[in-house]
Amino acid sequence: MIPMTLEEIAQVVGATPYDVGDPGALVTAPAAVDSREVVPGGLFAATVGARVDGHDYAGVAMAAGAVAVLASRPVGVPALVVEDVQVALGLLARHVLGRIGPVVIGLTGSVGKTTTKDLLAQVLERHAATVATDRSFNNELGLPLTVLRADAGTRYLVLEMGAGRKGDLTYLTGIAPPQVGLVLNVGSAHVERMGAGPADIAEAKGELVAALPADGFALLNADDPYVMGMAGRTKAQIVRFGRSPQAAVRAGDVRPAGRGRTAFELVTPSGRAPVELDLIGEHQVAADEAAAAVATVLGLDTREIAAGLNAARRRSSGRLEIVERADGVTVVDDAYNASPESMRAGLRAARALAGNRRSVAVLGAMGQQADVSRARHTEIGRLVAELGYDLLIAVGSGDPVALAGEAAAASRNVSVHAVEDVAGAITLATALIQPGDVVFVKASSEVGLGACARALAGA
């Protein structure tokens, strides 16, 4: 965060000061919407959620060192009161961005955004000061909070941009106009809110490249026809990445590297270099190609990019996060969220990691699949059987039960169980897991199976 006085911030966001003794007091640290994450010199943004009202924690934030609270009503401590805190954060972020002028890189896609963002950040950090989205803070609150972590020394600003509805990316790119826009893929995530099918999702994701300037770069996945269909929506220079021979940045000679990992030869216009991923799953190659495409248009050479990818490690929890227990059990926590695409990729990655070891899948519902939800869950059940999993625990009623039924019907070799909730999953999995097993845990975030993964990892 660049230093700004409370008076300056009030002018930018149109706030009315309440209980502010010193308008010249400096905010020198980033903003936070969680009072537990406030640092001395920061600004606490009091937002109202479904279960928690941040205004109730204004005093806690001040005690932690906040200079003031950005609020929608007076809170009895120094506050800048605005009509809408979320809108005010966006205005403040846009103002700060205009003053510091980093290269803004926006990335979106149905799956793989966070992993790609983490890989790209680790490549760019070796080259220059970089600020990237924390975890998956990619919405109307998370994006401005990321911008406000940047300062005058920041050269690259890597912004994961989520889109749950049409118009979301238009709003986010209005706060942080990107010079580089990366679209990973078009899948079935959020189909319930975006429309009837992939064309509707592509229309929403394409808002990112439509926002790019003529001297910018639109990085498009050459292997996804819906992404390539966005080419006509941008004025920017188009650079393709992927496995396609037409891709300027691509992976060649893709091969297993043991323990579920993958190696390949990175090919860019500036040369070739070997890469061996630390992350499990061949699908991670796509994230590496995408990160490499961004680094390429920013001027890094192939060997620099490959060195960054080889050194990169998983940064965000709940995404194929591996925990090895003392009894030889390996827990693969992929429970942050789930779509059919990420479920298939995760199941394959964990099964490859297991090799000859016994494999266990603990699966819950994939949300926001609209009227095709049941069919997509049964497809996953069939895949569990086809991949040769030994044990399946389906968690929840409705679609997970259909998933379990399809797995049982597809193979007699998989032992299938169904439980009602996360507590039941923990109890049953704890009883059935054997030393040496590989346990894969995944569901949409609202199911809460991350608690199961953590319980099994700590057992």
UniProtKB/TrEMBL annotation:
Q: Name one GO molecular function term.
A: ligase activity
**What residues bind ATP, as annotated?**
G109, S110, V111, G112, K113, T114, T115
Instruction: Describe which pathway this protein belongs to, using the record's wording.
Output: Cell wall biogenesis; peptidoglycan biosynthesis
Top EC class per UniProt? ligase
What are the Mur ligase C-terminal domain coordinates in residue numbering? 318-444
The record ties this protein, via SUPFAM superfamilies, to:
MurD-like peptide ligases, catalytic domain (SSF53623), MurD-like peptide ligases, peptide-binding domain (SSF53244), MurE/MurF N-terminal domain (SSF63418)
Stretches assigned to the Mur ligase N-terminal catalytic domain = 33-77
Task: List, alphabetically, the Pfam families matched.
Answer: Mur_ligase (PF01225), Mur_ligase_C (PF02875), Mur_ligase_M (PF08245)
EC number(s) recorded for this UniProt protein: 6.3.2.10
Tell me the ranges covered by the Mur ligase central domain, including all copies. 108-294
Function summary: Involved in cell wall formation. Catalyzes the final step in the synthesis of UDP-N-acetylmuramoyl-pentapeptide, the precursor of murein.
What name is this protein filed under?
Answer: UDP-N-acetylmuramoyl-tripeptide--D-alanyl-D-alanine ligase
Could you tell me which species this protein originates from?
A: Nonomuraea maheshkhaliensis
Q: Which gene encodes it?
A: murF
